Amino acid sequence: MSPIVHFVRHAQGVHNLSHANHHLLDPELTPLGEEQARALGVGFPALENIQLILSSPLRRTIQTALLAFSSQVGAGLQVIAWPEVQEASDLNCDTGSDLLDIKAEFEKLPVDFTLVEPGWHIKQGKWAPAAGRLLERAQLARQWLSQRPEKEIVVVSHGCFLHFLTDDWVNADNLHVTDWANAEVRSFAFVHEDGRPVLCETIESRERRGLGPVALTKEQRLELQRMKLQTWIKWGVILA
């Protein structure tokens, strides 16, 4: 049986303060972001059921995971750095650090970098900020998650890539290029369409967001995805 996956957008990073900060490479959390991450851990749904914590290997996502899930980490879990859920664009703020550097920074903390390969931070090949590559990366991530043996998993990722990962494109073309708030959590279960694992937001998660129980159809999702990707390409967020 496939797991329930709780997706989390990182807490506020320094780059979230202004567009001028987007030139910063792999920025950290702000003091407010640290508070948001700790508050997330207090109010997180079904916290006691988490069996696996995955995080993008960028600083702000790892920091969010360590602060939000400190009780689970203290009880023996590690934060597993997973490059498949790194951010979509190739802006400096969305680009990670060299593997040796980021490992050295967190070497005294319970973060496992086994899944991170050298060059993961270079936005080329499978990591390129192009629509086709991002859709493929998201599909591979869903496939991997759907086959995990754990009952409940946390994935800490980024606002733009979470639209690719969950295939929920509602309000993705706003000023912030995402409708995920900092330190927001949404919970999903797997269903299968045409033999592929597809994420469906749980009724409880939709209710927490003030939404009704009925989600979009497959056709509606595909059309919305097409429209939002065209907008992001036009804006220069990603490449065609």
From TrEMBL:
Q: Which InterPro entries match?
A: His_Pase_superF_clade-1, His_PPase_superfam, PGM_Phosphatase
Q: Give the CC-aspect GO terms.
A: cytoplasm
Q: May I ask which residue range the UniProt record assigns to the signal sequence?
A: none
Pfam families per the record? His_Phos_1
Q: Name one GO molecular function term.
A: phosphatase activity
> Superkingdom of the source?
Eukaryota
**Gene3D superfamilies hit by this protein:** Phosphoglycerate mutase-like
What SUPFAM superfamilies does this protein map onto? Phosphoglycerate mutase-like
How is this protein named in the record?
Answer: Uncharacterized protein
Species lineage, top-down? Eukaryota, Fungi, Dikarya, Ascomycota, Pezizomycotina
